[in-house]
Q: What sequence folds into this?
């Protein structure tokens, strides 16, 4: 399943997949409408006048549509490349993944290319079929006109979408939606939720296998590929561990960059065949870029990069950084009320087979705010918003370790405000917010 999801993410992020489907759909539609035209006798049916056309009008209409749409397709492609270039330079190259995953551009290209191909396919069928008789596919020509009208509507919407999608608010909102989806997928259970899955039931039962200690003698399985880990097939790893009746201690996690010889996991065995090691390596799915399928840090880094670029001297836009902080704080508030996945993965019998590295709230908090705090250390707006966000998070955290992590960040912001801010009023304002947050967190700590 993990392999298929990786392939789907790759296809969804390509510019050719949906236009390719549009080409196939146009060919099938042309075959279907032409087959209907071949079967119908328009002289006997007496169709409405708006459906009937002449051979010369049909040729002119279809050829004009096909040529115009090919030209407009070039315009759409140029606008797409310009948007991608501007996004890469202003918000960071990692944001290109988010833009490529949005389907408006791909659908527009699919409609234009598909309609143009449909018109050319129908155009070639207008010919003489007897002595002085011409075959005119009236229905197919009418469908071509409808597709041309739909292409015009898509083009108008594409212009609107392109103009709005490069705005900072739209970029941040699109990435924030992806982050929310990743959190919902990777942290599905809320605190206090009694609906556990089968693995959780078995782990909490009295018959479950206790957490094993890592033995002194293990076999290290190393990577034989280069790239970012986009996903790990956990079910397959459990199956392989069952075959050896052993435990896998996974070192790498989604989002890590690996290369030849990098450690992947330890096997609690004295000897493992090379063929079996190859099967284990296949469960680690790698690619040239990070994806949010199993890696929340991928989307977090994208928002952080937008904020850091906004704080650079060349752009100097702290309000965009504040918007990124708000989105990150909203995501963290959702994580604070959810259970983190168990690092011990069990089989159906409840035996621990795989031990993985799972994220903590403290790690996610560091990923969200550490770099922004570093580059915005002398900005009152950034420090103020960071302190307000941490204060807001204090209303959501329930675990002691989470509260301690927020307290640590509040103390760092206090020291930065006292060191870097020269206006006493601004300094007092931030210190008041951090003090309120620490007082509230003392009840949890």
A:
């Amino acid at each position: 399943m993990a392999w298929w999801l990786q392939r789907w993410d790759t296809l969804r992020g390509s510019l050719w997949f949906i236009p390719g489907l549009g080409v196939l759909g146009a060919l099938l539609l042309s075959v279907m409408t032409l087959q209907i035209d071949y079967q119908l006798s328009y002289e006997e049916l007496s169709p409405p006048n708006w459906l009937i056309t002449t051979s010369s009008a049909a040729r002119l209409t279809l050829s004009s549509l096909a040529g115009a749409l090919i030209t407009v397709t070039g315009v759409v492609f140029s606008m797409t490349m310009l948007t991608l270039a501007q996004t890469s330079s202003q918000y960071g190259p990692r944001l290109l993944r988010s833009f490529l995953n949005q389907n408006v551009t791909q659908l527009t290209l699919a409609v234009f290319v598909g309609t143009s191909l449909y018109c050319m396919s129908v155009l070639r069928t207008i010919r003489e079929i007897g002595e002085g008789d011409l075959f005119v596919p009236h229905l197919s020509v009418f469908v071509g006109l409808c597709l041309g009208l739909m292409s015009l509507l898509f083009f108008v919407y594409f212009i609107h979408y392109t103009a709005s999608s490069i705005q900072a608010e739209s970029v941040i909102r699109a990435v924030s939606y992806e982050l929310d989806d990743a959190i919902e997928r990777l942290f599905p259970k809320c605190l206090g939720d009694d609906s556990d899955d089968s693995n959780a039931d078995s782990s909490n039962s009295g018959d479950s296998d206790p957490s094993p200690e890592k033995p002194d003698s293990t076999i290290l399985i190393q990577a034989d590929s280069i790239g970012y880990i986009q996903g790990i097939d956990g079910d397959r790893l459990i199956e392989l561990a069952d075959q050896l009746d052993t435990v896998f201690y996974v070192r790498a996690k989604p989002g890590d960059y690996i290369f030849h010889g990098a450690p992947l996991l330890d096997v609690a065995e004295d000897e493992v065949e090379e063929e079996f090691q190859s099967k284990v390596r296949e469960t680690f799915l790698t690619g040239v870029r990070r994806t949010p399928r199993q890696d929340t840090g991928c989307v977090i880094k994208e928002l952080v990069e937008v904020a850091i670029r906004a704080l650079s001297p060349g752009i100097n836009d702290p309000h965009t950084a504040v918007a990124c902080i708000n989105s990150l704080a909203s995501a963290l508030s959702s994580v604070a009320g959810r259970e983190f996945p168990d690092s011990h993965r069990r089989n159906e019998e409840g035996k621990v087979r795989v031990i993985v590295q799972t994220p903590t709230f403290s790690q996610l908090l560091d990923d969200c705010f550490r770099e922004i705090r570093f580059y915005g250390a002398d900005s009152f707006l950034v420090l103020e918003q960071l302190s307000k966000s941490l204060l807001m998070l204090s209303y959501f955290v329930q675990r002691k370790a989470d509260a301690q992590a927020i307290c640590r960040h509040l103390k760092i912001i206090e020291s930065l405000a006292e060191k870097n801010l020269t206006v006493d009023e601004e300094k007092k304002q931030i210190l008041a917010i951090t003090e309120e947050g620490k007082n509230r967190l003392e009840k949890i700590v």
Observations:
- Residues 2-166 form one domain.
- Residues 55-91 form the longest helix (37 residues).
- The radius of gyration is 29 Å.
- Strands lie at 127-128, 134-135, 219-222, 227-232, 248-250, 257-258, 263-267, 284-287, 344-346, 352-355.
